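Dissemination and training. As part of the outreach component of the grant, students in the summer workshop were shown how a complex can be specified as a set of sequence lines and then modelled as a single object. The example used during the hands-on session is reproduced here so that future cohorts can follow it. Participants entered these lines:
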Amino acid sequence: MTNDITRLSASDLASALRSKTITSVEATQAHLDRIAAVDGDLHAFLHVSSDEALATAAEVDAKRAGGEELHPLAGVPIAVKDVVVTKGLPTTAGSKILERWIPPYDATLVERIKAAGLPILGKTNMDEFAMGSSTEHSAFGNTKNPWDLDRIPGGSGGGSAAAVAGFEAPLAIGTDTGGSIRQPGAVTGTVGVKPTYGGVSRYGLIAMASSLDQAGPVTRTVLDAALLHELIGGHDPHDSTSINEPVPGVVAAARQGAKGDLKGLRVGVVKELSGEGYQAGVSARFDESLEQLRALGAEVVEVSCPSFAYALDAYYLIMPAEASSNLAKFDGMRFGLRVEPADGPVTAERVMGATRGAGFGDEVKRRVILGTYALSAGYYDAYYGSAQKVRTLIQRDFAAAFERADVLVSPTAPTTAFKFGEKLDDPLAMYLNDVATIPANLAGVPGMSLPNGLSDDGLPVGFQILAPAKADDRLYRVGAALEAALESSWGGPILNKAPELKTTELAR
Amino acid sequence: MSTISRDEVARVAALARIDLRPDEVTRLAGELDVIVESVARVSEVATADVPATSHPLPLTNVFRDDVPEPALPVQDVLAGAPQQENGRFAVPQILGEE
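and obtained this result:
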């Protein structure tokens, strides 16, 4: 029976909890058992918080038994990416420099999760400080893709995506600076949403690039993503960039979209985000999805966003520049690792250099040094200044495109999941994974990836939907409509096609 | 546009306060050269008439009422520090001898 609980969507599990056919303790234990059985292979979790999760579950069960009014997701377990601080639970951001650090406070989104009574199963693996597209840059080992254990689960949020795809959790939290929610979603056959910049509070996220970072839902269904989005979204006085307006009606939009009527909707295909460089199977599934959207009544038009050709370049100047500044706080003084230099005087400056030399991994060093270089005297205007101008051009492209279309679409990633090590020695090849997701971060607009089939290699492909800022509800309407049409053509969710994971016998 | 020498990497790494081993300096010099050459394309389209954007959505400054709010308990914050003394962070000597 426990096996069946982990297969339920968060929405169905919430209904079962409400009707008291399952208790939260049962649901939480089922997921903890699943983690114990498969995470030895997957390594989606850096820390499993069994005791805390079961305590929350028992509390919710008691409240429900007492007839208390609860949040719709109360009792549904969730996994949290390790870049989000959790009071009392280790938070490393995938870095040696924060190994064994226990934060003294909760991120706002974690406060909301706790207040709503969702048991937190644990913290998920990620590329160090969210820098990467494969989770191979984690200081604590790779997370495997549940579809093929020799392949990457995407990144930086590979742990959250693998946990959800591997039925270890029905819900997870991700963060997306250049595609770290959407690209892992694409390569694991799951749903990931980057809300409008400012839609979800960044308070308590260990920042990489503050003008690009955004937290969002990682789930198996569009409706589940909407439910989680509504829970974590909304204004937060602790984040001065937080949007002081109500969260768009994403749950209502997902329910409306699932009815399958897209008449009158204009879908713009971004010319620059297809064709050359995209795997044949990825392009084929994309074209089929466009047909599905037409069949649902949408009008499909082509739009051109010429500046997108420069998005990746602008991103790899702005992001490292902001990261080099944000990561300056890891100086060995107030938290985390402290390493003293091997010889010579032990001054604060030399301790900082030794600590960062020992505590940061290769990709973090690469980006911090690149960012420092781009901001240094003599280069600032040519690099950082120019990149900020490209950002303006990309925003103008989006504005023009959204004159002609209600949503824009593209493949989420150019290829399916690649093998471990394949791109590790070629940073530029690794960076190309995010070519289709980065423009949304630069412009602050919301984006969703949902699975739209398997490529010729039998691995999942992602379909990306982009909407204007603060119109996140459009993602859910279109996403839910496409999801319903695709699932009816497949005869069920895409994850039914994933291979069964080998399970370790439980000692319990 | 530029060639990034080993000396340049060492100089920037010092600015970034990251001690690098000699082999790391060599590898980064090669890698950063390729990356910088690629991203320098931004200057092709960043003409003088285009304004810079620092932030995705237009923002105005945010104020709150000037009333004290509770801060984190000192001991909770110090608990994560590498070294503490008398309710404060203990840090190495700040200034060098020279």
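The beta strands of chain B are 84-85, 88-89. Students were then asked to discuss how this feature might be tested experimentally.
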